[in-house]
Amino acid sequence: APEAGRPITSLRSLFACAEDAGLFFVPFGRLGFSERRLLKVFFQKATKPFLLARGMFPYRGVIAGLNGPDPASALELGMDISRLLNVPFHALYVTLPHELRGAEEETQLKERQNLVYDFEGIYKKKIPFTLREGNPVKEAGRFIADFEKYLLILLYSRKERFSVFQPHVPFLIARKASLSTLLVPIEAIYAP
């Protein structure tokens, strides 16, 4: 059965937390300005999944973002949560415009399309898959704006760097998203 631990009053105290927790719940709407800036540090240090809760429960559906490092795990987690909650499931991937795509981007696109197709066969259910072209942060924001009270799932790597020339897409999407967002470091999935 789920347990609720003692409340954590700031992200700083969370970093020092020695408890064996499966998920951290972060009421994102109530964080102050200085705490929001710490969100970047939280992305780098969190060893467990964390939910940026924006007061939107019960969820009407689940959206899995496939722009992260492990789209198969994002699909699996999204499908499992949508089945547990008995709500619709959607998959989203944003790629570069066709004219700007290189071989690597084409490979990633085909990989995600094949994954969705495979998951449809495994779960015997049609998965609405939306492909957008353009800036991943802007396009994801436009897409999720049409979904009220959905849960957004994003996977990311703690090793991914934050820089101007290589933006941290899951971080930027989560920070700007209007939906509650479950963020899962891939290191938590593959931890021994």
List the helices and strands and how they pair.
Elements: H1 11-15, E1 24-27, H2 33-45, E2 50-53, E3 61-65, H3 71-85, E4 89-95, H4 103-123, E5 129-133, H5 136-144, E6 150-156, H6 169-176, E7 180-185, H7 186-189
Parallel strand pairs: 1-2, 3-4, 3-6, 4-5, 6-7
Antiparallel strand pairs: 2-7
Helix pairs in contact: 3-4, 5-6
In short:
With 192 residues, this protein is an alpha/beta fold. It has helices at 11-15, 33-45, 71-85, 103-123, 136-144, 169-176, 186-189; strands at 24-27, 50-53, 61-65, 89-95, 129-133, 150-156, 180-185.
Task: Describe the overall structure.
The protein has 192 residues and is an alpha/beta fold. The protein has a seven-stranded mixed beta sheet, sandwiched between helices. α3 packs parallel to α4 and α5 runs parallel beside α6. The mean pLDDT is 84.
How many strands appear in the DSSP assignment? 7
Unreliable stretches covering 5 or more consecutive residues? none
Sheet with the most strands, sense and barrel status: 7 strands, mixed
The computed structural class is alpha/beta
Provide tags for this entry.
single chain, alpha/beta, 7 strands
